[in-house]
Design the sequence.
């Protein structure tokens, strides 16, 4: 996706096998995120954003996902069932994130 691209997924996202996403735009996800790829999912640390805007969403998978920018919306619960890495910006607005004994790692040394 190009830098100004916006892509809406009204279902869930399932990445399998050797699936990858080249994201420099914004990907809006309404349901769950499942990373069963053998890779990180995102290519080359492109400065894309993934925005979880649905109700009671979960992040699953056999491997952690390293998001560049991760945004959550709504007062709804977001649950992690695998480790999540955020390379640049984490914006949870008014959402609640449940870690379920997993790690949420922010790599940006200047998170402000």
Sequence:
């Amino acid at each position: 996706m190009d830098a100004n691209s916006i892509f809406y997924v009204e279902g869930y996202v399932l990445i399998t096998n050797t699936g990858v996403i080249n994201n420099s735009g914004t990907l809006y996800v309404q349901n769950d995120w499942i990373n069963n790829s053998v890779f990180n999912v995102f290519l080359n640390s492109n400065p894309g954003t993934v925005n979880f805007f649905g109700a009671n969403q979960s992040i699953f998978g056999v491997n952690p996902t390293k998001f560049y920018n991760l945004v959550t919306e709504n007062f709804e619960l977001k649950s992690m069932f695998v480790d999540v890495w955020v390379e640049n910006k984490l914006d949870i607005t008014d959402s609640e994130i449940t870690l379920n004994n997993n790690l949420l790692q922010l790599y940006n040394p200047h998170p402000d």
About this structure: The chain is about 0% helix and 45% strand.
